[in-house]
């Protein structure tokens, strides 16, 4: 798949070679030789024209990166013990991974050099880099937010990749989440079906569209929930998203007035009870689907210790 990225060169105090500028400012973990090769192949343009690696930049130029999947220099990525994922299950078609909170699924940008689920998987299963349609996100068919913990399915072949991609598109994979929200939800169960679109006022934030006249570019979204336990000032629920929009559960629960405990984006200014939650209380605890081998699978992940402690503290206050 061809991708394109535009970079505007800031004003430079001194003219700088293109290849050196890219090495120092864009692709710090890519070899100079690889950058030079990309320039010579016409995958890096300046002002829409092919140029030489020694081209001098003065500032204000437009750099186009076309098909900018690059081979990064080999570097050891340090994984803190608490960020190491757990392989829950494996067969010839797929892996089930339990992702810890604090770990991104894949690098958010070319400069990112920290740990990710993808870097962990590629180190353990190098053949995964050939799977899928996106060179920057091989073998990834769905994702969890950085702060969200829980189960993910990782296909181990291209046929399995397209099989699971189709399952997600047709909503034939059931994902269940354990969620602690602020306040007492009065109804024991319910369905939230507000469309979700990008916020016009806050970058990288989604919003639920409550007024049909404001739908615009929003997408349909549906989340079913059922109450598991009531606490003083909080409710533990199980949430089942029927669609897979970014931040869907968080946006929907905030829209009905019960934001997720520990949510710094959608949680509002009101403090989370008397607690200081270590992170977002959102855990993908169950996955159900029919596999490529026509067998029904069901996987569960217990609540992580940091979230268990929050519930224990709430019980003490009752």
Describe this structure in words.
The structure is a single chain. The protein is α+β, with helices and mostly antiparallel strands. The chain folds into three domains: 4-66, Roll (Structural Genomics Hypothetical 15.5 Kd Protein In mrcA-pckA Intergenic Region, Chain A); 76-170, Pseudouridine synthase (2-Layer Sandwich); 173-318, Pseudouridine synthase, CATH 3.30.2350.10. It is built from six helices and 16 strands. The protein has helices spanning 18-25, 32-40, 117-124, 158-169, 248-255, 305-317, and strands at residues 4-8, 16-17, 44-46, 56-57, 62-66, 86-90, 94-99, 149-155, 174-182, 189-192, 196-198, 206-208, 223-231, 234-241, 282-290, 296-300. The strands form four sheets. Strands 6, 7, 8, 9, 10, 13, 14, 15 and 16 form a nine-stranded mixed sheet that branches. The longest helix is centred in the C-terminal third of the chain and has 13 residues, at 305-317. The chain is globular, with a radius of gyration of 23 Å. The mean pLDDT is 86.
Concise description?
With 318 residues, the chain is α+β, with helices and mostly antiparallel strands.
